[in-house]
Amino acid sequence: MDLITTQQALPALRKRPSQSRSRALVEAVEQACLRILDESGEDSLTVARIADVSGVAVGSIYQYFPNKDAIIALLYERVLDQEAEQLLRVRERLRGVPLKSALREILGNIVRVETRLFKLNKAFHLRYHSALHLGMWRGPYKTAGEFIEATWLPLLTMYKSEITTPHPELAAYLLGQGLREVIRGVLQDIPEQLESTALQDSLLAMAMGCLSPCTFGLSSRQ
């Protein structure tokens, strides 16, 4: 599989705090950002407002953060680190589970994480969506192709007795990349459907259709 898609980079700090005083400053800024988002929403989030809530001078904030997005990115790093640990537990639960049940669990977790990230800051999430990829987070993958070959293809191999598609690599791509883009479209266009049972049922049907096209009345052309 030859994909050239690369991960987008999140905005970064100017420098990482090394001493306890500087770590406390960055923590105060981060918590102030989270508090403003929770209480007033993303439209109220400005560096000046963060300085007011955190008690940290604007100049001191800019010593560590080049802009507001770099502060928000730190919140997303924390959430993704938490969810990466949860993802390991999800994968453990998949052992011995039938294909359809495994896909429902995987897709349900993807939707749950996307919903959590989206609610944190909608504009930021949509702007940096390609970087906020839980499966690739802090992983060794440089491209979407590497990620799919290391995760989705082995998963399909595990369930080869339940799969009829003659194109497993294409199916792996559609599952690993295509469905994520569908979810991104839902985030942008109909976010009210994010947590609906209908969305998860539809995603599961799409996934099963990729893996067993004949079951869904589709011809498998060579």
UniProtKB/TrEMBL annotation:
Residues 46-65 bind DNA. The keyword DNA-binding applies. It comes from Pseudomonas lundensis. Signal peptide: none annotated. Keywords: DNA-binding, Transcription, Transcription regulation. InterPro entries: Homeodomain-like_sf, HTH-type_TetR-like_transc_reg, HTH_TetR. Transmembrane segments: none annotated. The lineage of its organism: Bacteria, Pseudomonadati, Pseudomonadota, Gammaproteobacteria, Pseudomonadales. This is TetR family transcriptional regulator. Residues 23-83 form the HTH tetR-type domain. One of its GO terms (molecular function) is transcription cis-regulatory region binding. PANTHER family: HTH-TYPE TRANSCRIPTIONAL REGULATOR BETI, HTH-TYPE TRANSCRIPTIONAL REGULATOR RUTR. Gene3D superfamilies: Tetracycline Repressor, domain 2.
